[in-house]
Amino acid sequence: MITPVEKKRYIFIPCASYQDQITILIDYIIKDLKAKDPRIAFVTLEIEYGKVGLAAAKERLKHHGLNLVDVEIMPVGAVDASTTILNIKRAKADYVIVHLDITTSIAFIRETKRYNMGARMLGDYYSCDEDIVRAAGSAAKDYIGSHTFNSWYDDTPAMAELRNVTLKYEPGDPKMRNRYYIQGWVMSMIFAEAMKRAGKDLTPENMIEAMESLKEFDTNGLSAPITYTPTNHKAGEYCRLFKADVEKGRMVPISGWVKVAK
Q: Where do runs of H (alpha helix) occur along the chain?
């Protein structure tokens, strides 16, 4: 999407990539969970998002001298995951990387309990969401996720301000907003700062130059600090790890901001 920068000058992303998030999950399995020769399966979608994620998983496992023991492809929005789960069981996977959309993640995770899949599950981005925990219930116990944005429930001044402003314009609506709402807020912060730096003579080129001047731009905890350069339009390489709290229906942080290891 953003490489090479010189050919895609007007494209920026506000967070770490899917590849970064999957890399961090695989490193977590091997380094933090200290899994010895783990049998890792990967479940994804037959779209570009899924293909990029699968390639990243294979590349990182190769770095550790490992291969995937099973790859399962699910249709977007699938409600039946029985065949996928049975295939993963036959492959005797210890861990499953879940790289799906929210709806398909719910269907998959919820049915793992019914079929007693047994493997530990870890998901990234769309598969790291409070809606998944609430809908999947006890099947999401011990579920781990990686994401580049904090959640609505995070106890920081910036998130408190976000909640207050949201409820000011939508009073009486206590509904939780997901991480994609947080992402939209961060993107607005980035653009607002860039416009300030560009000054009154705001043109596309001045805006680009202002964006590329952001270095360790502080979102006050909504995400890791943001940095762009003339040769890099990806905001950073940091993710945070979360674990499902089934009783509260939340993904609770279990790490600080983790940078992708080379």
A: 18-27, 48-63, 82-90, 102-114, 130-136, 157-169, 179-198, 204-211
List the Cα angle 94/95/97 in 5-degree steps. Answer: 160
Over residues 94-98, mean pLDDT: 98
- What element of type H or E holds 124? strand 120-124
How far, CA to CA in Å, does 172 sit from each of 111, 164, 166, 178?
35, 12, 10, 18
Which structural domains are found in the chain, ordered by start? 18-148+238-259 (3.40.50.2300), 149-223 (no CATH)
Helix (H) or strand (E) holding 147: strand 144-147
Cα 221 from Cα 253, distance rounded (Å): 12
The helix/strand/coil state of 133 is: helix
**The one-letter amino acid at 64:** H
Residue 6 has pLDDT above 90, yes or no: no
CB 148 within 8 A of CB 122: no
